[in-house]
Design a protein that fits this description.
The protein is α+β, with helices and mostly antiparallel strands. It has helices spanning 3-11, 38-46, 53-61, 73-87, 134-147, 159-163, 171-174, 188-203, 207-222, 226-241, 296-310, 338-365, 367-381, 434-451, 466-478, 513-547, 554-564, 567-572, 575-582, 584-597, and strands spanning 18-23, 29-35, 64-69, 103-106, 114-117, 126-128, 256-263, 267-276, 279-289, 317-319, 331-333, 390-399, 402-412, 415-416, 422-425, 459-463, 486-491, 496-499, 502-506.
Length: 598
C-alpha cells in the first residue's frame, strides 16, 4: 500500500477510545497500541519527526492499519494488554506473565478467603476484574473488610478440624478483623451471607451494602461518635462513585466467538470477536456485497461459517444477535443482559464503525462511484424512470400570513448546489394560503426555466402532503410538464412520501440513504426559506421604523443604516452625530421623533 492509502485510512478513523494495530505490506503485525482518541493518536505517528530511530523505522514499514473500538480508556488499556501477550508484535515491549493486571479472588473453599491476585487459577474460584490500578483493589478490600470481617489465614477449615480444636484464633481476631471461624465462633451460613454481600459489591451492586453503611453511619451519629460516622460516610462516597469492572475482559466468558451484523441496501458488514480464556484476542469485520435481497439472517449464517473456517476457530459456543442455523454441535447463545450482551454490543459497534469508514473512504477515493451508487439506489427506492441527478425541493414560509415567501433548493448528484438556490416573494396570494402559494412558485420556477431553455430537474420534492402536491401538479399541467418530471410530496409527521394519483403513501426504511437525502433536501429548503423570511421581516421592520419619520425618505434611511448599522444606534446617536451624516434639518426631525416615542 502507498503512503496515500495509509493517510486515507487515518482520515476515516473514529475519534473514540480503542486499540490500533499496524501491519506491514506482507500483513505482518508490527505494533499494537491504545488510544483515548484513535484518530489523534494514530495521526501523531505521521505528523511529526521522531527522534527515536526505531519509531522512524516502524512508521516507514506501516502499510495497513486496523483498529478495535471500545467504550473507555480503561477498556483500551486492558485490550492492548491481552493482544500484546497473544501476538507479541516486534515493536512492542514484551509483557511478562507476572506483570499482568490485578484481580479480586473469592477462593473456592469452606469459609472463602477474599484477596487480590495477578494469577488466575482454574480451580472453581471466582475472579472479578481486571483492575488497572492496585489502588482500586486495595480500596475495595478495605471497604469489604471494614464492613464484613473476613479470615486471612490459609488454614483448611474443614468441619472435622474445627470440631477437633486444631486451630486457635490469631491476632486478627483480637483486632476485630475476624470473627474466629477457625474455633467455630462464626457459623458457615453467616460467613457465606457476608461473602454474598461482598460478591455483589465486586459486581457493582452496592444497594444492600449502602443501606447497611447508612444505618451504621446514623447509629454512630446518634451516639455522638462523629469520627466513626465520618469514616463510614467516606466509604459510602467511594462506593457511590466507584464504577464496576471493565467489560472487555471477563474470565467467565471462555472460548467464545461473537458475531454481529449491520447492513444497508447494497452491503452487509459482519464483525467477529474471538474471545479466548476470557480475553478478546481478535477482531475482524467482513464486508459482503448483496447479490439478491438477502436477509441479515441469511448473510450472518454464511459469514459465521466463512469466518470460523478462515481463522480456524474451534470454539463450541457463539454469541449472535438473533437465532441462526449453524453446524451441528455448535451452541448458539443470544445474550440479552450482562457482560455477554455488552460484548455483543461492542462487536456491533465495531461493525458500524467499519461501515462508516468504508463510506468515507469511498467518497474520498472514488466520489463518482459513490454518487452512482446513491443515484441508482434513489432511482430504485423512489420507483423513478431515471436517476435523480438534479433534484429541486420547495417550501413555503410565513408567520400568521405575514411576509409570505417560498424557497427552492437544488441538489445535483446528491449534493447541495447553492448557486442554484432561489427565493420567491409571493405575489398573487393574499393571506396564509400554502396551497395557492405553492402553485404560484412552482409555476414561476418552471415557466422561467422553460423560457430560458434551462435544464429541468429529474425530480421535484414538495414539502407537504397531498394538498401541496395537488397544487404543484396544477402548475405542471399549465406548463404541460405533467409526466415529464417526477414529483413527490413529503409529509413531516411520519415521513410519508405521496405520489400523484396514488392514495397510498410510500414509507422508506428510516435508515435508508434515500430517505436521508430527501430529509436533507427538505431541511435545507426549510432553513433557506426561514432565513429569507426572517431577513425580509427584519428589513421591513427597520424600514418602517425610519421611513415613518416625516421628511425622511428611502435614500436617507439607506445612508443612516450604512453609517450606523442599526436602528437602535440611530436612536441612541446625538444630534451632532446625525448632523454629520444627513444634515441639521433631518437630524432635528430624527431626534424629535425618537424623543416623542420615549
Amino acid at each position: 500500500m502507498t503512503e496515500a492509502s495509509v493517510k486515507l485510512q487515518i482520515s476515516t478513523l473514529p475519534s473514540n477510545p480503542g486499540v490500533y494495530q499496524y501491519y506491514d505490506k506482507e500483513d505482518k503485525l508490527l505494533y499494537i497500541g491504545k488510544a483515548i482518541n484513535l484518530k489523534k493518536r494514530v495521526s501523531s505517528y505521521f505528523n511529526k519527526q521522531h527522534d527515536n530511530a526505531r519509531t522512524r523505522l516502524l512508521v516507514k514499514r506501516i502499510a495497513h492499519i486496523k483498529h478495535i473500538v471500545v467504550a473507555t480508556e480503561t477498556d483500551a488499556l486492558l485490550l492492548e494488554n491481552n493482544l500484546i501477550k497473544k501476538y507479541q508484535p516486534k515493536y512492542n515491549v514484551m509483557l511478562k506473565d507476572d506483570k499482568t493486571y490485578p484481580w479480586l479472588c473469592i477462593k473456592k473453599e469452606r469459609f472463602p478467603r477474599v484477596f487480590p491476585t495477578r494469577r488466575l487459577v482454574k480451580d472453581g474460584s471466582e475472579y472479578f476484574g481486571p483492575y488497572t490500578s492496585m489502588k482500586t483493589v486495595y480500596t475495595l478490600m478495605d471497604l469489604v473488610k471494614g464492613l464484613y470481617p473476613l479470615r486471612t489465614c490459609k488454614y483448611d477449615l474443614s468441619e472435622e478440624k474445627i470440631r477437633a480444636d486444631k486451630y486457635k484464633v490469631c491476632l486478627e481476631y483480637h483486632l476485630g478483623n475476624c470473627v474466629g471461624p477457625c474455633e467455630g465462633l462464626q457459623t458457615e451460613t453467616l460467613y457465606n451471607e457476608n461473602v454474598e454481600a461482598i460478591r455483589n459489591i465486586f459486581k457493582g451492586n452496592f444497594k444492600e451494602s449502602l443501606v447497611r453503611f447508612k444505618e451504621q453511619m446514623h447509629q454512630f451519629s446518634a451516639n455522638l461518635q462523629f469520627e466513626d460516622a465520618q469514616r463510614i460516610k467516606e466509604k459510602i462516597d467511594i462506593l457511590e462513585n466507584y464504577q464496576a469492572k471493565s467489560t472487555v475482559v471477563n474470565p467467565k466468558i471462555n472460548n467464545v466467538d461473537v458475531f454481529s451484523i449491520t447492513s444497508d441496501e447494497t452491503y452487509a458488514y459482519v464483525n467477529y470477536l474471538q474471545v479466548s480464556y476470557g480475553s478478546i484476542i481478535r477482531s475482524h469485520t467482513l464486508e459482503i456485497r448483496k447479490k439478491l435481497e438477502e436477509t441479515d439472517r441469511e448473510l450472518l449464517e454464511l459469514a459465521v461459517v466463512e469466518l470460523r473456517q478462515r481463522f480456524n476457530s474451534i470454539c463450541k459456543e457463539i454469541y449472535v444477535p438473533f437465532s441462526i442455523k449453524t453446524e451441528e454441535g455448535l451452541k448458539v447463545h443470544i445474550p440479552k443482559l450482562g457482560d455477554k450482551k455488552k460484548i455483543l454490543d461492542l462487536s456491533l459497534r465495531n461493525a458500524k464503525y467499519f461501515r462508516m469508514e468504508r463510506f468515507k473512504q469511498a467518497r474520498i477515493v472514488d466520489p463518482d462511484r459513490h454518487e452512482k451508487r446513491i443515484m441508482a439506489q434513489m432511482k430504485k427506492d423512489l420507483r423513478l424512470s431515471e436517476e435523480p441527478r438534479h433534484i429541486e425541493c420547495f417550501d413555503n414560509s410565513n408567520i400568521q400570513g405575514t411576509n409570505p415567501v417560498a424557497a427552492c433548493v437544488v441538489f445535483k448528484n446528491g449534493k447541495p448546489s447553492k448557486k442554484d438556490y432561489r427565493k420567491f416573494n409571493i405575489k398573487t396570494v393574499v393571506g396564509p394560503d400554502d396551497f395557492a402559494s405553492m402553485e404560484e412558485v412552482v409555476y414561476r420556477r418552471y415557466k422561467r426555466l422553460l423560457d430560458e431553455k434551462q435544464p429541468l430537474p429529474q425530480l421535484i420534492i414538495i414539502d407537504g402532503g397531498k394538498g401541496q402536491l395537488s397544487s404543484s401538479l396544477k402548475s405542471l399541467d399549465k406548463l404541460n410538464l405533467r409526466g415529464k418530471i417526477a414529483i413527490i410530496g413529503i409529509a413531516k409527521r411520519l415521513e410519508e412520501l405521496f405520489y400523484p394519483d396514488d392514495p397510498i403513501p410510500l414509507y422508506l426504511d428510516k435508515k435508508s440513504e434515500t430517505l436521508k437525502i430527501i430529509q436533507q433536501l427538505r431541511n435545507e429548503a426549510h432553513r433557506f426559506g426561514i432565513t429569507f423570511h426572517r431577513d425580509k421581516r427584519s428589513k421591513e421592520a427597520l424600514d418602517s421604523a425610519l421611513e415613518s419619520i416625516p421628511g425622511i425618505g428611502e435614500k436617507t434611511v439607506m445612508e443612516l443604516l450604512k453609517h450606523f448599522k442599526s436602528t437602535k444606534r440611530i436612536e441612541d446617536a446625538g444630534f451632532d452625530a446625525l448632523e454629520k451624516v444627513v444634515g441639521a434639518s433631518r437630524a432635528k426631525k430624527i431626534v424629535t421623533h425618537f424623543q416623542q416615542r420615549k
